[in-house]
Amino acid sequence: MASRLSESSDASSGAESVEYNHGVKRKPERYSFDDSSEEQSSKMPCLDPSDSYYNKDSQSEEDEQKEDNRDFETPNINSFYKNQFNLKSDEEADENRQSSYYRTSSLSEEDKDDVLEINNDSTKKSELNKTNVGTAKEKNDAASKAERMMMRMGYQKGKGLGKELQGRAEPVSASTQKGRRGLGLELKELKNAHIEFNPDEEVVEAQEEILWLDNPYKDSPSVEEVTEWENERKIGPCKKTIDGEITFCDEIVVKNIINSKSVFDRLDKNEMRDARTRSNPYETIRNSIFLNRAAVKMANIDKTCNFMFTQPDNLQSDDLLYFADVCAGPGGFSEYVLWRKKWRAKGFGFTLKNENDFKLHDFHAGPCETFHPYYGPKEDGNVYDPKNQVALKELIMKQTGDQGVHFMMADGGFSVEGQENIQEILSKQLYLCQCLVALMIVRTGGHFVTKLFDLFTPFSAGLVYIMHRCFDQVSIFKPNTSRPANSERYLICKGKRPDIDHIVDYLFRTNKSILKNKENDKNDILELVPVHKLTSENDFFEYLKDSNEQLGQKQIVGLKKIAAYTEDKSLSEIRQKTMREECLKHWGLPDDARTLPRRVSPSTKAQELLQKSVNVLDKSAVKDAIELTIANVKSTILVNEHDWFCMPCSSGKGITSNGQEDEAPTFYLGTGRYHVYRYKKGSWEQIGNSAIELPRDTLVYAEMVTELRKEGKSQTKTYGLHILDAFTLGAEKVSDKHITERLQLVRLFCKALWKPVQQSCYPVRVKELLAVSHHLDEKIRMETKSMKNGTKVLGYFPYKHSYENDDNNPYYYTPRSVIFFKATEEPWARHKSRTNQMYFFNKQNRQSLWEIPPTAAVPFAKTIANRIIWNWPSDKTFSMNDFINCIKQKYSR
C-alpha cells in the first residue's frame, strides 16, 4: 500500500495541503472513506496504475489546471521533513507528524491505525502494531494491513482491481524486455542462440583465397548453340518462393538459410543492427578514407585479384585506364579507382538519377573531374532501358577509339525489406542487364565485377554460365568487407573473349521480352540456358554448387552469431581492431579517418607547389616575354632551331589594351572541381560561373581562347582553356621533364578531363606543339573565314583528337601570335641525323643519345621565363615567308 503523507500549513497562509506518494508530489484527494456508502465506494482511489489516482469528479477546473501544471519530483522523505518543517530533532519530527492533518473524519479507529502504521517510521510503526492486535484468523486472512484496507475498499481476493473488478488479477511479472522489443515479447528462436553458434565454424583472416573456374572452351559459344538455348529455355509462371530451388544447392543448406533469416522477422531492426555491428570482426573497417563501404569492398576485391582492375596487363603506358561504374551511385567503387590511379583513370558512370545519383562532391579521395556520369537519352539512368544501353555503348566506344573500357563494375541493388528470401528472384533483371552492358562495353581482354545475391535459380545459374563462356575465367567471391550474414557475393570475370556479338543480341532480346511481359506473371523467362545443359557441364555445375553451399554455410554461421549477440548484449567481437589494421595494411589502404580536403588560399597553394620556382609568377605577363623580330631571330631561335618549339596563340601584342586581358596567357591554379583561379596583375582571382573544372593541385600555363564554329550568320562562339605548359597535373609534378614529355602528359590529362556530351563548363585542351622548321607554314593550317559582320579573317584549325566529339563541326580560332619555347638545356643540343631522326648531342663530352637525357630538359620555370613571342600575322615587318626564308638561308650556306 502506498504511503501517504500530508502537510497542513497555517490557515492564514492560504497554502493548500500537499501529499507525497512514493516520493512523487501529488495533490490531496477530495473524497472521504465510508464503508457503508456505495456511492462513495465508487469514488475510492483505484490502485491500478492504469486508473486515475483520485476522483476528478469532485475537482474544480482550477484544481485540474494546477494538477496539470505541477512538476513531479522524487524528493528524499527525510530531507522533505527538514526542509518543509525546519526539523532539527527526531522529537520535533514526531511532534509534527502527530499534528499532521489526515482526512480521517469518516475512518474507523482501526483504519486510522492502518494509515499511521503504513506511514510512520519503524519505531512508531512498532508501537502502533501493539495496539492493533487482531485475531489469529484475521492475521491469516489478511497478510498485511494494506491488504485489509484494500478489502474494505471493495477488493476481492483473486479478482482484479477497479470499480468493475476489471483490472488484472495477477501482478505484473518482472520484465525481461530487451532493447525496443514489446513488453512481454519473447523470441523463442533466440533463446538457444548462444548454444547453436559455434565460434570454431567461423574463419577470420585478413588474407583471402579466390577460386577461379577456367573456361575449357577454345571459342565462344556459336550462333547455333545460342539459338538452341533460346529455343529450349523454360518459360512459365513467375516464381514467388525460393524453397524448391535445390538443383544448384543442397536442400538442407537452403532450408537452414531461410530458417536462420526468419529468426529476425519479428526482431526490431535497430536491435538486429546493433548485434550485427558487435558481432562482425570486420565491421570497424567501414569506409576508411572513402565516402562509403563499397569503395573498401572494391579495394578488397582488387587486392585479392592481384590488382587486375587498377593495374591490368593490357594497359599501355601512354594511355588512360578506362572504366565504367554501372548502377553504382553514390560512387564508392569509382572513388577507390580514382584514388588509386589519380587523373590517369577515366571513368564513365551510369546510375539512376536524383536520390541514387553519384555524389561527386563527396569524392574527397580521388579526382572526380575525370569521372563522367551519363544517364542516357532519357536522362533517367535506367539500366533496363534498351535505348540507354545502346547509347552508353556508343558514348564509350567513341571515347575509347572503339576499344571499350578496361573493366566495368556493377553494384546494383534495391530494398527488398520483408522479401529477403526471394531477393534473387526480384533481382533477376538487374543481374541480366548488368551482365549485358558489360558484354557490350568491356574491351577484349578486359574484366568485369558485379554484385549478386543468392544463385539458386536456373535463371541465375544460366547467366553465370553465359559469363563463364564469354570470359577466360570467372569466380564467385565473397570478400571480407561483405558482411558474413548477408547473401551478397561478387561475380568476377577475367579476360573477355572476342566474337560474342550474337550472345549480346540474345541477352538484349531477353531483356526486351522481360520488359514486354512485366505485368504478365505467367510468361516469365525462367531459364537462359536449359537446366540439363548446366548440369551436364560437370566442372561448372560442381563449382556453382560448391560455391552456393560454402557461402550458404558461412551465411548461416553469421546469422547464428548475430542471434547469439542479440540475445546476449554483453558479447562483443574483440578482434575488430586487429582485423581493421591487418586488412587495411594488406589491401594497401591508409588507416586514417575520412577528412575534408584542406582549403588554403590560392597564393599559399601556389607557393606550396612552386616552392623555389615561385618567382616565375612575375614573368607571366605578355609584356615580360621577349619579342621576336627580324633583327634578333638569328641570335635567338636560329642559333639552333631544333632546340625550339612553338604554338599559335589567340592572344598577342596589344591584347591588354583592348579589354581582352582575361584571354592572355597566364597561370591557372586548380584546387578541386570548379575552384579555379587565374593569376592576373600580381594576384589570384577566381574564375566565376563555374566555367572551368580542374583537379586539385593543378598548376598550368594557359590561355582562354574564343573558339569559333561555322562562319557568316551561322557562326557560333564558345570558350576553351588551352594549356601551353604544365608545372603540376593533379598533384603530379611534371615540371622537370622535357617539354615534349610534359605536353604529352598534358594531352593525356586533357583526354581524361574531356566531357563527351555538352557540359556547362568550358573544355580544357592542350596546345599543339610544333617543331620549328622550314615547313612551319604548312603545319599551321590556316583558312580564310567570314565573320558574322562580314569581315574576312584567317582561322587556325588545331589538330583534332579522336576523343573530341565535334568532328562534324570543328572549331577554329584567329591566331594573333606564335609563342616559342626553348626545350634543350646547355650543353646539350638537338640535331637531326642523316636519316631524319632527332638525337641529342653534348657539346662538352661529345656524347650522342637518341633518348632525351634528363639533364637536357629545360624545366618549366625557365621555359616560361625565356619564352619568345612573335606577333604574327599582324607584324608587317616580319612575315611567315621571312621567317621560313631565314631558316632556308641558314642551311643553304
TrEMBL record:
UniProt entry tagged with the keyword tRNA processing: no
EC numbers: 2.1.1.57
Bias kind Low complexity: ranges: 1-18
The keyword Membrane appears for this protein: no
Domain WW: start-end pairs: 822-855
Region (Disordered): 1-144, 160-180
CDD domains reported for this sequence: WW
Any one GO cellular component localisation term in the record: cytoplasm
All residue ranges annotated as the G-patch domain in the record: 142-188
Name of the molecule in the record: Cap-specific mRNA (nucleoside-2'-O-)-methyltransferase 1
